[in-house]
Amino acid sequence: LVLFAIEDRRSRIENGYGLEPILTDGATGAILRSLRPALRAGDYGAAAFSAAQQISERILAQRPGEVEERR
Predict the structure, then answer these.
(1) Helix or strand or coil: residue 3?
(2) Most distant CA pair in the chain: distance in Å?
(3) How many whole angstroms separate alpha carbon 4 and alpha carbon 10?
(4) Residue 34's closest CA among 15, 8, 11?
(5) Contacts of 39 (CB under 8 A, 6+ apart)
(6) Closest-CA residue to 47 (of 26, 31, 29)
(7) By the 8 A CB rule, do 28 and 52 touch?
(8) Distance between CA 45 and CA 39 in Å, rounded?
């Protein structure tokens, strides 16, 4: 779950137990820090897309054989 609380100027990434070894607190913190420029510019769509992309890249890097390529 990627959450942007726009008026509160807060963001958060929550994940389930199965992803904790891959998406650690440090990893999610790094992802959120990388989103700051887009969020400050009000480009929430770009921030959400970037978050999804970075999360998926980390998962694929750790578990490449578990995900089939879809065409």
Answers:
(1) strand
(2) 40
(3) 6
(4) 11
(5) 4, 11, 47
(6) 31
(7) no
(8) 9
Query: CA 24, 2, 47, 7 torsion: positive or negative?
Result: negative
Residue 69 token pair: 């390529």
Q: Which helix (H) or strand (E) holds 57?
A: helix 44-62
CA angle 6, 1, 18 (to 5 degrees): 155
Going residue by residue through the chain (71 aa), what tens digit of pLDDT does each one get?
999 999 999 999 999 999 999 999 999 999 999 999 999 999 999 999 999 999 999 999 987 676 665 54
Q: How far is CA 36 from CA 29, 33, 52, 58, in A?
A: 11, 5, 15, 19
Give the predicted TM-score (pTM) of the model.
Answer: 0.84
Length of the chain: 71
In whole angstroms, what separates CA 54 from the centre of its chain?
5
